[in-house]
Fold:
Amino acid sequence: MTPALETLRLGRRYGRNWALQDCSLTIAPGHVTALVGPNGAGKTTLLHLVTGFLTPTTGVVRTLARVGFVAQGQPLYRSFTVEDTLVMGRRLNRTWDDERARKRLHGLGIPLSRPVGRLSGGQQAQVALALALGRRPELLLLDEPLASLDPLARHEFLRTLMESVAEEGLSVVLSSHDIADLARVCDHVVILSASRVLLGGDLADVLRTHKRLTGPRRENGRIANVERVIEARHAERQSTLLARVGGPILDPAWQVEDVSLEGLVLAYLALPSTALIAQRVEVLP
Amino acid sequence: MIWLTWRQHRAETLVLGCILLTAVAGLVLVGLAMSHTFDQLGLGTCTRPASGSCAEASSSFDRQFAPTTLNVTVFLTLLPGVVGMFVGAPMVAREVDRRTHWLVWSQDVSRGRWLLVKSAGLLLLGVSAVGIFTVTLTWTLGTVFRLGTFSRLEPFFFDVQGVVPVAAAVFALTLGMAAGTLTRRTLPAMLIVIVLFGVVRFTVAQARFHYPPDPVTVAVPLSAGPMIPAGAWEIGFPVLLDPQANRVETRSPCAVPGPVQPACAGYRFIVAYQPADRFWRFQAIESGIYVVLAALLLALTAYWVRRLTV
Structure:
């Protein structure tokens, strides 16, 4: 299967600072990938490299797909009516599904005759999404689509998005500095921090291979099947570890629990920068 | 893309159109009044230099219309700069201010095509506005030049006629586009436009004294009538020479206008001027300067737009 997006040792430097480095990703079509990381981690840089707004300093990006993009803050021409915005979409694009865009906005009860600037934040986000989807992209990139929305608008936005994913089978990459919103909708995750990819893969795989271990205090020494300790907390008599495991933990001294995506992301982002070793990341089904 | 350009700028077009309509109507009224007064004062039969009743009529005409003429010419001298500020500077800067450049550049339109259509549309808008105003003003000022006392080459008059105002508008617009792309902020870009436009227009107006070919220099005896031909542009001040070709200071009794005293026989003025028929040659030189500057600025804009990454 041709990947929807593939990057190889991708990097971008501004002056002496790397905004993104050594980023190798493969994203198979039909998936929703969450791009998670703190502000300044390189999420926007990565998305702009994929859209072609930026040229890479190193490495390559390959997208065979038709790429759609919704920039941070969902910019729109505020003086345009919703109708004008759709006309713009039709006139500026080779491929445009007018009927579907109209039906989508109609279904949400957004009046086409109203200026975009007088719509609510949630409605503006829906118009931006309708414009991006109207282009019939095969890969849709959304930069912090939920940042400015209230919880109800987030829910509505994600619902519209997931309906389109289900109907049209498009691939989506959406970035966020807050994973909680995306945990419900994504099936793949990429964690970025300080310009590097820390972790990437199928969400179920990632959750299966990361466990929280609680047991007697132990600061050193190996535990069978633990590949890497991501986070370790030591109390007086007890240690709590978040670790990547290669198989079942059979040592009865350790109590093994599943981790939430949120807990996992936080643990990865808390890693000291010296531990940030680039790795080839496969995000394949 | 043409539709988008029109949709984005139709408000500016309407505002500019309204201002222009009012201005053109005002200019036509002033022009009609001028030509009516000219005929009424019987100025058509006067010769140069005006004397007696003709001199009176001429100065009466001046008193009546000089303030309006001055206001209108100053307005048209500044109009290209204002168009550059309000139409040119926001072209890229306002898009970046509002992040909408990422919206429009993520459609199936390349940045190059976007810039081409947008800049062409805005140049057309600015050129039409300034062009219509210039044509009307040229017609209005026609009566003024029938007096023969003013030259179409003189500063202010030269700046508001022919193709120079339009070329200056093209320059101001591209200056706005380049400043807006470089600063990526609308207000600083507008400030840069008005300051640089003022500096460049002033500098070019100074350079006009040195446009080729060199001014015609003639020796005029004191008794002769007008020192320079009708409609010519006098460069510098006349120099008074005695019969031995020594410079005479201007306070000399011989420099006083009026009947020539016997003691002043053989004295003559040396006068330099640009003849009226060099008007279009000078217009071409000056427009050429603005168009070359505009081409450079447009190339810079294209380069910076291509490299815009934020």
